[in-house]
Amino acid sequence: xxxxxxxxxxxxxxxLQQSASSLYFMPTGSVSGPSYGSGFFxxxxxxxxxxxxxxxxxxxxxxxxxxxxxxxxxxxxxxDKR
Length: 82
Known about the structure:
The structure is a single chain. The protein is 23% helix and 30% strand. The protein is of the alpha+beta class. It has a domain at 25-60. Strands 1, 2, 3 and 4 form a four-stranded antiparallel beta sheet that branches. A hairpin with a 6-residue loop joins strand 1 (9-18) and strand 2. The mean pLDDT is 87.
């Protein structure tokens, strides 16, 4: 049996709140379970749920964006590549 190779990149989804009246951006939203910081999600579905909750709670007309972010996987280079 062959072990699973570590992926070269990890994909996160970032939820950003844009002020309705300016170009002010702020990460927003939190996820239950392991946290990677405010506004960062490991699944697009979780980011969409947080965006929906933020839109329902927002009374100021802010805009919410989700962006995929790929970051280098620190485990990728740590794995022996024989």
